[in-house]
Amino acid sequence: MNRKRVVILGATGSIGESALKVARDIPERMEIVGLAAKSNAQKLAAAANEVRPESVCLVDETQIDILRKSLDYQPRIFSGTAGLLQIACLTGADIVLVAIVGTGGLRPALAAIEAGKDLAVASKEILVMAGEIVMREARENGVHVLPVDSEHNAIFQCLEPARVRAARDGGVASPTDIRRIILTASGGPFRETPRAAFDSITPEQALKHPTWNMGPKITIDSATLFNKGLEMIEAHWLFGVEMKRVEVVIHPQSIVHSMVEFTDGSTLAQLSYSNMCFPIQYAVTWPERVPNTLPPLDFSKLSKLEFSTPRYDDFPALNLARRAGETGGTLPAVMNAANEMAVAAFLDQKVRFPEIWRIVEQVMNRHTPVAHPNLDAILRADQWARAQAQGCVQSAER
Ligand SMILES: NC(=O)c1ccc[n+]([C@@H]2O[C@H](COP(=O)([O-])OP(=O)(O)OC[C@H]3O[C@@H](n4cnc5c(N)ncnc54)[C@H](OP(=O)(O)O)[C@@H]3O)[C@@H](O)[C@H]2O)c1
């Protein structure tokens, strides 16, 4: 039996919690050997005391004493950003699950690839910023990049027959078989809210997602549709498909997690209830499927599955992301960084909800993209965009 040894980066977050549930559900298939978080020492210790990984890492060194005191056994303890890189390369680990919110997962993801670990990627931001580099490094190091985002995991499952065929014929799965990738979007809490009401949206309202229970940043991204915009670029890199073949459809029930339309006109879709344990398990056990305790769909209780076109003019994130993805180079990293700053400012009640789109657009308009950037150029663009966005936040506050 193939038991995978897994390191979880972002163990105290929403994806981290779901990954721990999967490990409890299929212990004969998933062993946790490392857990890492940023600063939540007590939650990290509680998880470690339960699953007893050989190593833990806390980035915030000021909280290390709390971590030590809260542990009831003696794992190896790493700390700081250097420690995060070390735990990402743990000897004996097979897969590193990158579930760090924002851009903090990029360097550990690249370190894990270089160390020959397969990557299970929840942190879409790292593929948006540096998809070209991550996918190239993965190819050169012979490691798999397994998508955990539910939409990309769905597409990955729909492409399984093409991968099997390609492996049999000694080639690679060909994106020319794919006519369109169709990402489904719940539409978020403001799917039907009139544009005139956007100015008065509060963080509390935006944090109430209708179908998914997630961390705050991705929940706001789902409300603005930047989450789907980031996912368009993520799909482009993960599956080697041009941006023009990546589309979005609104599907409020979040049951169909995404679809692939092939050149012969057939469409494959993946369906399940909206629970991140499904994609996490598939990424860990791939290429095998194993039984679990998750509830399968009860079609007699699914009254309807609806699909509609997004309100592109009212939610500009999709067009901004298409522009960033089509332009490429450093522009996606700039969009991503400006969005992170704008979301933080909205959550701090410094700017109103529609300012998130305006700030991102302003920063993108000011940027001169660098084509095929190396990691340093990407990180410089990221820092530049953060400073620019900060300026926009200050102007919007006045
Ligand atoms: N939640 C979902 O259902 C979902 C679905 C698809 C994709 N994703 C993606 O998965 C990622 C994680 O989302 P989430 O909802 O789980 O976020 P979350 O609940 O906010 O958790 C974030 C995790 O990252 C850790 N972290 C933050 N900054 C870090 C840093 N610089 N170094 C190390 N660890 C750091 C946090 O540690 P502390 O707790 O110590 O701060 C926490 O464990 C995001 O990229 C998101 O887009 C999430």
Secondary-structure topology with pairs:
Blueprint: E1 4-9, H1 14-25, E2 30-37, H2 41-51, E3 55-58, H3 64-70, E4 76-79, H4 80-88, E5 95-98, H5 106-114, E6 118-121, H6 124-141, E7 145-147, H7 150-158, H8 160-169, E8 178-185, H9 203-206, H10 216-224, H11 226-239, E9 246-250, E10 256-262, E11 267-271, H12 277-285, H13 317-327, H14 331-347, H15 355-366, H16 375-397
Helix pairs in contact: 1-12, 2-3, 4-5, 5-6, 6-11, 6-14, 11-13, 14-15, 14-16, 15-16
Bound molecules: NADP nicotinamide-adenine-dinucleotide phosphate.
Written description of the protein model:
The longest helix has 23 residues, at 375-397. With 398 residues, the protein is an alpha/beta fold. The strands form 2 sheets. Strands 4-3-2-1-5-6-7 form a 7-stranded parallel β-sheet, sandwiched between helices. It has 3 domains: 4-147, Rossmann fold (3-Layer(aba) Sandwich), CATH 3.40.50.720; 149-275 and 295-317, no CATH class; 328-398, RNA polymerase sigma factor, region 2, helix turn helix motif (Rna Polymerase Sigma Factor, Chain: A, Orthogonal Bundle). It contains 16 helices and 11 strands. The model has no long low-confidence stretch (mean pLDDT 96). NADP nicotinamide-adenine-dinucleotide phosphate (NAP) binds next to α1, β2, α6 and α10.
